[in-house]
Design brief:
The protein is mainly beta. It has a domain at 1-113: Leucine-rich repeat, LRR (right-handed beta-alpha superhelix). The chain has two helices and 32 strands.
């Protein structure tokens, strides 16, 4: 059954009396309340000027599991601050609930508490709350604004799943744990001020239990605050609406598959103090065009950065990429099948290039290998058969893990003057004769 929501709501301007619970309903009838819904006896039901009152024989401290389960006429409710516990599914399915006053002493929002409250527009989570349970606000499809205070440390599985009308989300700096798909299907602008944690255990094939914190969210914008230093594994995997990512100076680690399959991502800007871009971090971002480094802070030359295995694999529209100056290694297949790249300049600080690192870069024309390179893995440039110019700057020939190319190379490799003998006595001989 559905009702047309009315404008009358309970008075939220002050705290409710400890022995009284105030509410409104869309049909001016008393909501159905489960037996033993409270830890006090009800002594009176009353209604005045469109507001209902439930009066108890003593201050209530808890609202039981399923207390208002499927009360589809409940429109608003003010819970007194003496309440320290609200049970699981207490307001589950209250489809016309627009507004609720959560008491200031509540520490835990339990599993399914407000699940499927599809008319709920606003929720003020008090500073006392430290945890938000599984599916606690799942399918609150009319929720517009969400602020998670600094004291909250954990957010459960699918806690805000499919809150598809959100315009602004702010997450405080206290978060330690965000379980899988907590924000899947959420929209709007995300502002986050904490390190984004990894899933609790490694990804298992065909398992949804290890999806990242924001897997499948539909954010239009992500803003990382000054307290963010790491972006965890799978954090924003399959966030298919985000177009531009700016990763600020304080972030040093980007986890495995952190932005994998972000299918509308076009531009990534990363500060030069990044230490690690994890395996698969941007894999399958098919329309990603540009990865650039914001180089406006002092670089710590004692720290070496790495590009993980498959980090940008299948970024088939990637045209321009600038790596951090302190990058020392490029992982296996890191840029394989980036078939729009035309120029690769490997800087002097890079020492190791992994197997198939640039394999399948079919439009690669100019290749410059920096003087610091010490080893190159097998098939690093397989299927790069449009190369017209190669410069190899190391004075000591880099060790080769196998063949660099899987085609007959018809291009001269330019090597440093005076190094011909060293190269002819190495694995490079077959490419120089």
């Amino acid at each position: 059954m559905s009702f047309m929501a009315r404008l009358i709501t309970a008075d939220f301007s002050d705290n409710a009396e400890p022995c009284v619970l105030r509410y409104t309903t869309v049909d001016f009838k008393m909501p159905h309340i489960e037996t033993k819904a409270f830890d006090a006896d009800i002594i009176e039901y009353s209604y005045s000027n469109g507001v209902g009152y439930i009066t108890f024989n003593k201050p209530i401290s808890c609202i039981a599991d399923n207390a208002f389960y499927n009360c589809d006429n409940l429109q608003s409710i003010v819970i007194p601050d003496c309440v320290i516990s609200i049970g699981q599914s207490a307001f589950f399915g209250c489809t016309n609930l627009i507004e609720v006053k959560i008491p200031n002493c509540l520490m835990h929002i339990e599993n399914n508490t407000f699940c499927e409250c599809r008319s709920l527009e606003k929720i003020d989570i008090p500073d006392s709350v430290v945890s938000i349970g599984n599916s606690s606000f799942c399918e609150c499809t009319n929720l517009k604004t969400l602020v998670i205070p600094d004291n909250v440390t954990s957010i459960g599985n699918r806690a805000f799943y499919n809150c598809s009308s959100l315009e602004n989300i702010s997450i405080g700096k206290g978060i330690v744990k965000i379980l899988h798909e907590a924000f899947c299907g959420c929209t709007g602008k995300l502002s986050i001020n904490c390190d984004i944690p990894n899933p609790l255990r490694p990804r298992m094939r065909l398992s949804s239990e290890t999806y990242g914190a924001f897997y499948g969210a539909m954010f239009s914008q992500i803003i990382f605050g000054k307290d963010v230093t790491s972006i965890g594994d799978y954090a924003f995997e399959c966030c298919k609406q985000i177009r531009d990512i700016f990763i600020p100076y304080n972030v040093t680690l980007i986890g495995q598959s952190a932005f994998r399959q972000c299918n509308n991502l076009t531009t990534v800007t990363i500060h030069n103090n990044i230490i690690s871009i994890g395996n698969f971090a941007f894999k399958d971002c098919h329309i990603l065009e540009r990865v650039s480094i914001a180089d406006d802070i002092q670089d710590d030359s004692n720290i070496e950065a790495s590009i993980g295995n498959f980090a940008f694999k299948n970024c088939s529209n990637l045209r321009n990429i600038t790596l951090p100056r302190k990058t020392h290694s490029i992982g296996v297949s890191a840029f394989s099948n980036c078939c729009t790249i035309t120029n690769v300049y490997i800087s002097e600080n890079i020492k190791y290039i992994g197997c198939e690192a640039f394999a399948g870069c079919t439009n690669l024309a100019h290749l410059e290998i920096g003087e610091g390179v010490e080893s190159i893995g097998s098939w690093a440039f397989a299927d790069c058969n449009n190369i017209v110019y190669i410069v190899c700057k190391p004075t000591t020939p880099p060790k080769l893990g196998g063949n660099l190319f899987n085609f007959a190379l018809n291009v001269k490799i330019n090597i440093p003057n005076g190094c011909e003998k060293a190269y002819l006595n190495s694995d490079w001989r077959k490419y120089l004769e």
